[in-house]
Amino acid sequence: MKMKMKLMNMMVRWSLCLALLMMTGCASVAPGHDPVVVRAEQSLSIAFDTIDTFLKLEHDNQELVKKKVPEVHAFAQKLRAKVTVGGKTQPFGISVIQSATDVKNAYKRNRSPENKANLISALASLEAIVRETQQHLTAIK
User: Fold this and answer.
1) Which alpha helices (H) appear in the chain, and where do they start and end?
2) Residue 113 three-state SS
3) Which residues contact 44 (CB under 8 A, 6 or more apart)?
4) Most-buried pick from 9, 30, 103, 135 (CB within 10 A)?
5) Is 87 left (phi over 0), alpha (psi -120 to 50) or beta?
6) SS3 content of the chain, % helix, strand, coil (to 5)
7) How many helices (DSSP H) and strands (DSSP E) are in the chain?
8) How far apart are CA 56 and CA 86, in angstroms?
9) Tens digits of per-residue pLDDT, 37-63?
């Protein structure tokens, strides 16, 4: 029963993140704000919340997840796996978020077309990880 309550609480949090994504996707951008930066900041926030929620849910129910949906556990382990990027070692999930944050900050310092293209590409990669994470969250239900 306790595990079901944890699962329900995590699913509620995930649903709220998804609802936030839906609402912010159509939100207008305040005058003077760069829509690319606004989208990047929204995407980064949602990515962190989604990955964090997924990893907590998977961890709290790890034995059951391993048994019932081993591919979900394997994906969680992929997100937790340590990678070294630019001399910095951190979990893969965090490195994807950090990389997109670094590209966003580079764009904010120099809003060149090349930096904008790099940011859009980084966001596409980040959003692909978020979509995959959301699919695995759904599989845990």
Assistant:
1) 2-25, 35-60, 62-68, 70-80, 92-109, 113-140
2) helix
3) 97, 100, 101, 104, 126
4) 103
5) left
6) 80, 5, 15
7) 6, 2
8) 27
9) 999 999 999 999 999 999 999 999 999
Q: Are 107 and 118 in contact (CB under 8 A)?
A: yes
| Paired residues of 82 in beta bridges | 91
Partnered with residue 84 across adjacent β-strands are 89
Per-residue confidence (pLDDT) for residue 105, from 0 to 100: 98
Q: Which residue has the tokens 């912010």?
A: 24
Residue with tokens 């995590």: 10
Banded pLDDT at 19 (limits 50, 70, 90): very low
Sign of CA dihedral 9, 94, 70, 124: positive
CA distance 20 to 15: 9
pTM of the model: 0.77
At position 134, the amino acid (one-letter code) is Q
Amino acid identity of residue 25, one-letter, is G
